[in-house]
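User: Could you check the structure of this?
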Amino acid sequence: MTHPPRITDESVLTRWMSIEIGKLNEGTVQKRKLLSVLLGEGAPRTTTKKGEPYYFQKEVIAALGKKLPHQIHGRLKLPILFFLSPDVPDSCFCTDEAAFDSLRFLGEISEMHTMQEGRFWVSRAIAYAIMHTYPTAVQMVMTL
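Assistant: Sure, the predicted structure tokens are below.
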């Protein structure tokens, strides 16, 4: 006789956590846009995974456009995504090399940070400070 999996089985917990994390991530953008494109839009926006509009703060986009060199405008996709994992409670990572270059140029991360295996790590405190400095241009994404 076959019994259904118990609620304490890891596969059941993992599946449940995946569903809940998916709900948490519904507000993240579906398609990121280049800074150069956003600078040309009257009301810079994109769409969330839930299908709702995601509006960028025009002042933030303009400030990034002024502070960053023009060669980065065609490489930097916004919002910058930092990925949070329950396995690493005090740090998060980003997989975007243009974001790495931009944040180093802006002085938000130090020259000591490096890209390793396609990602760079920062403390969650630094990531949240960057998000506070550039609202709507940075999002946090939960992972499992």
